[in-house]
Amino acid sequence: MATVTPAQPKSVQPETLRTLPSDTARQLQWGFADRFDLQMLMQSARAVARGPVARLVANGGRNSHEWTEAKAAMLEAFDESGITAVFMDPEDGGLFAGPKNLALALVAFELAWVDGGAATASLAGCLALAPIHERGTSEQQRRYNRLAAPAQPGEDRKPWRGAFCLTEPIPYVGVDTGMLNGKLRIVDWKPGEEPILQVEKRGRFITNIGFANFVTAAVDSGDERIKGSCIVILEEGDPGIFDRGTPTRKMVHQLSSTGDPIFNLRVPASRIVGGYDIKDGILIPRYSHSDVIEAVFRRTRVTVGVMTAAKLLSAVEPVIRYQRGRFRGAETATPGSVRYELGLQARQDALHRLVDVWATGEASASLAFAAARIFDELDPLEKEVEALCVERGVTGAKARTKLLREAGERAAELIQLPAGDPHREPMQSDLLLRFVALDSLADVLCPAAKLWNTGWGAQTMREAVSLMGGYGITEDCPGFLGNKWMDAQLEATYEGPEAVQRRQLSVTMTNPVLLVQFRQWVKEMRAIAVEHPGTGACALATAMTMWLWSLDHLQHHKDADGGKLYQSARQGVTFPLADALCWLLAARCQILDVLRLESQGAQDVSLAEGLPGLVNFLSDLCHVQSARAGGEVARICAELVFGYNRHPAWEGAPGCWHQDELDTLEGYIPGINSYALDVVQSNGAHPQKAGPCVQCHSEQAFLSLHAKLDGCLTGCRLAKDRAAEAISKVMIPEALDYPA
Ligand SMILES: Cc1cc2nc3c(=O)[nH]c(=O)nc-3n(C[C@H](O)[C@H](O)[C@H](O)COP(=O)(O)OP(=O)(O)OC[C@H]3O[C@@H](n4cnc5c(N)ncnc54)[C@H](O)[C@@H]3O)c2cc1C
Question: How far is residue 311's CA from residue 114's CA, in Å, rounded to a whole number?
Answer without folding.
Answer: 8
